[in-house]
Amino acid sequence: MMQMKDPYLDHDGKPDADHHGQWLMEPEQLKLVFDTYWDAEWQIHIHVNGDLGLEVLLDIIEEAQRRKPRNDHRTVIVHFANSTEEQVERIASLGAIVISTVHGVSAQSGLMRWCALHLCFDEVFHFRFILIYRCVQATQC
User: Fold this and answer.
1) Residue 140 pLDDT > 70, yes or no?
2) Which long-range contacts (CB under 8 A, 24 or more apart) does 21-30 make?
3) Residue 139: count of CB within 10 angstroms of its CB
4) Phi and psi of 76, rounded to 5°?
5) Do 22 and 53 contact (CB within 8 A), yes or no?
6) pLDDT of the residue at 134
7) pTM of the full predicted structure?
C-alpha cells in the first residue's frame, strides 16, 4: 500500500483523515538501512509508491548526499506511481534514476490492457519503451 500526502477515500468516497496508507518499512528504519548501503557506496534500488513515501525517500537521499557526498550514485527509484512536479525536479537534482514500471501504469489506469486488446505485441512493446523513455527524460537522466 502506498503512503499518500492526501488521505485515502472511505467507503462513501469521502477523505478518511486517519488513512494515508501504511508503511512497509518505517521511515527511521528505512533511513538506517539506506545509510548503511549508502556509506558502503552501493548503488541502491528502492521501490516506492505514493507521494508521501517518495518525499521521505528524497529527504533521506538528500541528507545522505549532504552527510557523505557521492558522485554518480545513481540511486534507482522503482515504480514511481504518484509524485508531484517538485518531487520530479528533486529526483533530477539529486542524481537519482526512475524506473516507472508498466505494471504500475496498468494497475492504475488500465492503459496497457487497452493496448493489449487493440495493438499487436510489437506495438505494446514499443509503447512500454516510450513510457520508460519519457520518464527518464522527465528526470533528465
Assistant:
1) no
2) 21/50, 21/52, 21/53, 23/53, 27/56, 27/60, 30/56, 30/57, 30/60
3) 20
4) -105, 125
5) no
6) 43
7) 0.68
Report the candidate in 49, 53, 68, 57 with the shortest Cα–Cα distance to residue 96: 57
Residue-wise burial string across 34-53, b where 16 or more C-beta atoms lie within 10 A, e elsewhere: beeebeeeeebebebbbbbb
The pLDDT value recorded for residue 69 is: 97
Phi first, then psi, for residue 23 (nearest 5°) are -75, 135
Query: What is the chain's mean pLDDT, rounded?
Result: 76
* Four-point Cα dihedral 87, 27, 79, 76, nearest 10: 80
